[in-house]
Amino acid sequence: MVYSFGAIFVILMLIGLPVAFALIGGSVGYFFLSDKMFFLQNLAQKLIGGVNQFPLLAIPLFILAGEIMNQGKITTRLIDFSNAVVGHWRGGLAQVLIVTNVLFAGLSGSAAAGAAVLGSTLIPAMEKNGYSRSFAAAVTAASAIEGPIIPPSIMCILYAFTMNISVVSLFVGAIVPGLLLGGGLMLCTRLIADWKNLPPARERVPLADMARAFKGALLPMLTPVIILGGTMGGVFTATEAAAVAAAYALILSLFVFKTIAWNDLYGIFKKAMISSATILFICACAFVFAWTVTLSGLPAAVAQWAVGITNNKYVLLLIINLALLVVGMFLDAGPAVLIVAPILGPTAVQFGIDPVHFGLIICINLCVGLATPPMGLVLFVTSSVAKISMGSMLKDMVPYWIVHVATLLVITYVPAVTLALPRFFGF
After folding, report:
1. Domain map (residue ranges) of the chain
2. Any idea what the Cα angle at residue 65 is, between residues 62 and 66, rounded to 5°?
3. Per residue in 361-374, pLDDT tens?
4. What is the DSSP string of 28-79?
5. DSSP for 138-207?
6. What long-range pairs does 32-36 form, CB within 8 A, spacing at least 24?
């Protein structure tokens, strides 16, 4: 009965209950079966306390900034710049897609948004340029997971909130892994392009045209620079940085580029509000679930179980990575972070694993799950945008999955990849 909440949670998920209600159901079921019904009187207080946290205010503000950038057609400028830089390479449009996803990640922080916005623009263009629709969809899905990795990352905010560590240290630590993954995807695409004899997107552009494209994309690309520079310089907190990002996006779209009108703001704010409410309600329920996990003594039991299997942290990391890959196949990354962090985090600390390093392992692993069947959210979004079945794109996904897993292993077993920058800047 002690860990019955886990079984109840899984059962409720399997019968199709939304993850938030499954989290609450698991907690209530545990209190009932373990004869601790008196804890129910604190349930409402814990739900409210779960979202009444200043750091979580960053989530709706970053979502709002991303929505403004999306509606403001900022992506067109990023695509033009990427095309000027790498469009002349063999497989140029696929390379453009990857580079744009890296740049777009610093604006939206969402894998689904990257897959939907960039996929709807570039998948038809790639098909006209001689690419198969399944390959175009595979590149879109594989590169879209950059969104939740490169800062600003909502997943990093959720992990930092759950484990009470610095959001900024996670943001800084995620830069190199995000670029490493992007570089791996580009190398993989180049090898595939040479093998399949894929065409370049365009001729090499003159430096003047490249400079013009850079000028057009410069202001949007400054968004992550402002966020990281301001937080690392102590000008504002991560939460205040989210407000700055939203204001900056609004100024660019309304007054500089003039790509949205005042009457567009109602729809933008409404969409951001709905997305934020969904995530924050899950956060509230996950806070109750984490409270239940603590009451049950599960973290100590997991640590004891891990010690019984191995006292080698590298073996433990392999076991955890395998478990997280399975979790990521079935759960969306955000809720999964809130569920697994309070269970696995204390065990990692007991084994001497740096919390920032471990947090990024969790976040990146679960991002890989977004593009992994059977329930990868990005695969569903991309197949819908490309108007193909998910199964038809899986063969073309295999090389990119190899890159995902290889990058994950490097991040796991070379801590400097995630920790060098945070340590350099004093975190």
Report:
1. 4-424
2. 90
3. 998 998 888 888 76
4. HHHHHHTT-GGGGGGHHHHHHHHH--GGGGHHHHHHHHHHHHHHTTHHHHHH
5. HHHHHHHTTTTTSSS-HHHHHHHHHHT--HHHHHHHTHHHHHHHHHHHHHHHHHHHHHHTPPPSSPPPPH
6. 33/1, 33/4, 34/1, 34/2, 34/4, 34/296, 36/295
**Residue 165, φ and ψ in degrees, nearest 5:** -125, 175
Helices 207-232 and 58-71, axial angle in degrees (round to 10): 170
The crossing angle, in degrees rounded to 10, of helices 175-196 and 390-413 is 130
Whether 185 contacts 142, CB under 8 Å: yes
In this structure, are residues 168 and 182 in contact, taking their beta carbons and an 8 Å threshold? no
Contact 130, 88 (CB under 8 A): no
Per-residue pLDDT of 237-278, as tens digits, reads 878 888 888 898 899 888 888 888 899 999 989 988 888 888
Q: Any idea which residue has 């392009």 for tokens?
A: 193
Q: Which residue in 15, 33, 12, 31 sits closest to 23, CA to CA?
A: 12
Question: 388: helix, coil or strand?
Answer: coil
Measured at the alpha carbon of residue 422, what is the angle toward residues 337 and 147, in degrees to the nearest 5? 45
Q: Is 404 helix (H, G, I), strand (E, B) or coil?
A: helix
pTM of the predicted model, to two decimals? 0.81
